Amino acid sequence: MRKTVGEDRKMLKEFTKFMMRGNVMDMAVGIIIGAAFGKIVSSLVSDVIMPPIGLLLGKADFSNLFLVLRQGTPPEPYSTLAVAQKAGAVTLNYGLFINTIIGFVIVGFSVFLLIRWVNRLTALVPKKEEAPAAPTTKTCPFCLSVIPLGATRCPQCTSILS
Asked: Helix crossing, 22-43 with 94-124: angle to 10°?
């Protein structure tokens, strides 16, 4: 069943209204910044942190740590993971997994530091004092019982209130 042009426009307006809501836009910005932040952290891990760790452990690069599960052609030895994969060998790439875990830990720690910093900044901003809530009760001048503010007669002593 074909929708009318008016229904299409209504749906487009609803979609536009949905997309312009604050939380959708905030989420989109967060995803974009998160992707860029992920690239920065990946570069930090692979280009800055992993080479010195690899040197300390006697390996040039964690990304070239692998186990050969099935030989390729030509057979072993393979100097790098790329050479092994080009030969068609089936490999278990535990070095790449180690790099990914280190990257995850760094991202987690970075997010922790960011949230900690934001919380400290938020604590420095003075909070607006809320106005006290309007009273909803009053005291009967005759029997001193608490009664609703709009009452014209006290339910306890039946006095007429002005």
From this structure: 130
* Residue 145, CA distances (Å) to 77, 135, 154 in order: 94, 15, 8
Q: Helices H, strands E: what count in the chain?
A: 5, 4
pLDDT at 59 (0 to 100) = 61
The 10 Å CB-count burial string (b at 16+, else e) for 120-141 is eeeeeeeeeeeeeeeeeeeebe
Beta carbons within 8 Å of 160's beta carbon, 6+ residues apart: 152, 153
Q: Which one-letter amino acid corresponds to residue 88?
A: G
Confidence of residue 146 (pLDDT cuts 50, 70, 90): very high
Q: Which range has the worst mean pLDDT, 7-16, 19-28, 140-149? A: 19-28
Q: What is the DSSP letter of 152?
A: S
Of residues 98, 95, 89, the one with CA closest to residue 69: 89
By C-alpha distance, which of 77, 88, 83 is closest to 63?
A: 83
**pLDDT score at 100:** 82
